[in-house]
Every structure is written in structure tokens, then in C-alpha cells.
Amino acid sequence: AQAKRFESEAPDDLPTKFITGNHDESLKKLAGLRPGEELARRRSDWEYIGSCRGTVTLDAGKGRKCVVEMMHPGGGSSYALSYRPQKLVESLEGGSKPDMLLIGHYHKAEWMPAYRNVCVVQAGCFQWQTPFMRDLALAAHVGGWIVRARIGKGVNSFTGQFIAFYK
Question: Rounded distance, CA 118 to CA 91, Å?
Fold first, then answer.
């Protein structure tokens, strides 16, 4: 039912590249379902690029490129909003870092424009706080980002706007 709803309601004028996360992996293990492949099969304008990680290169021509890495890491939230993203960026080797790192999993929304020369975005989520999250004193930042990238030769500029949803 969810796949059918996605197929009929997702905008069809916007080519989309996406990854799946830990809950999708659970479906694969428990029921043999592969949500990423299934959604991509239903929509030719959607491209599944990986389980928990994927990279997209935006090519503006004339040597102007922007590498965007999407990551759905493991582990839990930390005491400070930026701690886990900072540690993820610190673990990336120089010369192989993306221009932008989009992070899921933590249900947080955050914008760090240039940590180690990487624009870091915690993606937010579309799930309200669960009893499990409430018991652990974890907030859910419900909403999503609109990110604009200006791609130059050797320099990129990013602006972001978080669209929050409230009950």
C-alpha cells in the first residue's frame, strides 16, 4: 500500500536519486523486501543508488562539479546536535571528501556550511517522536530541506532552507 501511494503521489517532474536506511534493511532481513529497488522499479524518474550510502556528482559543465554524498549511518544521537556529523566528517580522508554530506538516521535537522570544507546537512525526518525516542529524551526534527547549490570551478556555494512541520 505504501509503494502504491508513493507511486501515485510523489511528484513526477523531478528526477530523484535516493538511498535507503536501517528500517529498509530490517524489511529486507525480515521479509525479503527490497524497498529501494521496488520504489525505483515503480518510478522511472527515481534512481536507487545504495543501501545506507550513495554518491551523486552534479556536473554543471566546463569543469564545474559538486560531489554530494548521502549517508544513513548507524549509531545513536549524541549529547550535542553537531557531534556525530563532526565525527563523520573527521573520519573522511582529505582529497576524498564530498562537497556536501547529507546525513539521515538521527531524526535531526542541522546546517553546518563548511566543516573541514564540507557542507554538512542533517536531513531531518518525517516521523513524529516515538515513545522510544521520548524515553531517551530524543527530539524528532520533522520536515525537510530545500538546498540550492551554485557550482563553480573549484568553489561551490550552498544555501539551505528547512521547512518544518508541526502537529
Answer: 12
List strands edge to edge, sheet with 53-61.
53-61, 64-71, 100-103, 118-123, 109-115
Amino acid of residue 76: G
pTM recorded for the entire structure: 0.90
| CB hemisphere CA count around 80 (13 angstroms) | 6
pLDDT along the chain (167 residues), means of 10: 83 88 83 88 92 95 94 89 95 93 96 96 94 93 95 92 94
CA pair distance 147, 134, nearest whole angstrom: 29
The residues, any chain, with a CB within 8 Å of residue 2's CB and separated by 6 or more, are none
Task: Give the residue from 154, 159, 123, 145 showing the smallest Cα distance to 60.
Answer: 154
In sequence order, which residues have a C-beta less than 8 Å from that of residue 57 and are 6 or more positions away?
65, 66, 67, 68
| Residue in this structure with the C-alpha cell 556529523, named with its chain if needed | 85
For the segment 98-117, what is each residue's pLDDT rounded down to a tens digit? Answer: 999 999 999 999 999 999 99
* Beta bridge partner(s), residue 17: 47
CB atoms within 10 A of CB 133: 15
